Amino acid sequence: SAAIEGILHDRMTSPELGAIIKALEDDDSLDTDQAAGVRILRRDYDKATRVPEKLVRALAERRALAYQAWTGARPAADFSQLRPHLEELVALKKEEAEALGYTNEPYDALLDNHEPGATTAEIETMFEDLSSGLKPLAEAILEEAGPRPEWLARPATPELQETFCKWLVAQVGFDFASGRLDTSPHPFTIPIALGDVRQTTRTEPGALLNSVYAALHETGHALYEQRLPASLYGTPVHRVPSLGMHESQSRLWENQVGRSRSFTDFLLPKLKDRFADVLGEVAPDEFHRGANHPERSLTRVNADEVTYNLHVVLRFEIELKLFRDELEAGDLPTAFNDAMERHLGITPPDDGAGVMQDMHWSMGGFGYFPTYTIGTLYAAAFYARAESELGSFGDDLRRGETSRLLAWLTRKIYEQGYRLPAAELATEVAGAPRSATPFLDYLRAKYGAIYGRTF
Questions:
Q1: Which of 277, 293, 290, 283 is nearest to 156 (CA)?
Q2: Beta-bridge partners for 29
Q3: Rounded CA gap, 388 and 267, in Å?
Q4: Most buried among 52, 98, 191, 360, by the most CB within 10 A?
Q5: Which residues of 94-120 are buried (b: 16+ CB within 10 A; e: fewer)?
Q6: Which of 423, 396, 398 is nearest to 408 (CA)?
Q7: Residue 256 to residues 148, 250, 420: CA-CA distances in angstroms?
């Protein structure tokens, strides 16, 4: 890994490439897409040239070693196996932040790696606004929810789950002539080449809906990758402008579409055809409630819409403390447990279920977590804007029909590639800068309808 990243860094920072970019910046004959490509290359080149190759190689090596340590430390719930790697990794990421430069504080540089143009101050304010509205709302909804429906944990054959998920993702628009769906321990999506997008879901015997919604989540990513502008393949514009923008699509298809009342009404009879022993007597109201059941959960990846972003907020707060030198890497388990208790009212039983549940920190992904919530906020705003322009999708989704929504998203977002920075594209699509308001409004309306009361 260190050798390969060193070679790539050497090519990306070559004086010849720098001269080509400078010449293109002075070329008035470029069209809009070409000019956007040059803008992206300039950003990539300038960032790369600030970081010495020695540091690039050291980070690659430490990430590989830390991730390998995590694969053993998490199931053993033994943070001591991971601790020295994390301490070294945090120190190296601080070096990287200093090399890259930043607006106000080191975390700016790391955030910019994942959400270009975003600043810590902006995200901190946005998260404070979100938390102030979300925490009391979550408490009220959780109090109303009651115990978890028993049928959610009934066993379902993994092979049947996989077959159903393949049918479902094709139903909403995934093109199997240009991709695959398989299974893996952690769901993911990766573009291999033009016309080849791979996605996975996860099957668990006692968690049928987890596999269904993991598949819809990853399909949001895959639909985006399959519909980037093919004519620009191989250019810098043929990519997604930020992780938050990518996450907006996985969250939208999983939640605004997949967990809507209209779509759960469509989904239930299809599931009953294959899983009668799991869902045979479950009524549409029960199923919709179950698909949206909120609870205080230990695990971020399985968290419901109500509590999910509290998991992200606590990780963001911890990362800020690390890079403001207010927290040492060795103190992460205690800090994580305290944050879980403060935000979600529960404490992990051990470090495997707590601080080590995610792989991100072991892979040096500091600055990555905020993009999950940015994507969540984008998703609510985009879906609301689509319905304001095209009318309700309720009747469409009750039939399992997604073509109107998919066409709108393709035109507005997917086919735009990286022509605009993410924040500009999001404002253009949503008609307003990113904020927590559309998401909070969406939760209040949705759970107000589920429980027949005002939140």
A1: 277
A2: none
A3: 25
A4: 191
A5: bbbbeebebeebbbbbbbbbbbbebbb
A6: 396
A7: 21, 10, 25
Give 197's strand partners: 179, 191
Answer for the pair 278, 212: CB distance below 8 angstroms, yes or no: no
**Contact in structure between 276 and 295 (CB atoms under 8 Å):** no
Amino acid symbol at 283:
A
CB atoms within 10 A of CB 324: 12
96, 218, 254, 305: the catalytic one is: 218
Q: How far apart are CA 272 and CA 262, in angstroms?
A: 16
Contact in structure between 304 and 368 (CB atoms under 8 Å): no
What are 1-49's pLDDT values in tens digits?
999 999 999 999 999 999 999 999 999 999 999 999 999 999 999 999 9
CB 229 within 8 A of CB 415: yes
> Could you tell me the end-to-end alpha-carbon distance of the chain, in angstroms, rounded to an integer?
50
Q: For residue 55, what are the CA distances in angstroms to 2, 43, 46, 98, 324?
A: 10, 19, 16, 11, 21
Longest Cα–Cα distance of the chain, Å, equals 68
Q: Rounded distance, CA 141 to CA 246, Å?
A: 28
DSSP type of residue 255: I
CA 407 – CA 423 distance, rounded (Å): 21
Residue 12 is inside which H or E element, if any? helix 2-12
Quick: pLDDT tens for 85-139: 999 999 999 999 999 999 899 999 999 999 999 999 999 999 999 999 999 999 9
CB 265 within 8 A of CB 275: no
Residue 401, φ and ψ in degrees, nearest 5: -100, 120
- Tell me 148's DSSP state: P
Neighbours of 271 (CB within 10 A): 20
pLDDT digits (tens, 9 = 90+) for 165-217: 999 999 999 999 999 999 987 789 999 999 999 999 989 899 999 999 999 99
CA dist., res. 74 & res. 92, Å (int): 22
Q: Is 341 one of the annotated active-site residues of the chain? A: no
pLDDT of 393 over the 90 cut: yes
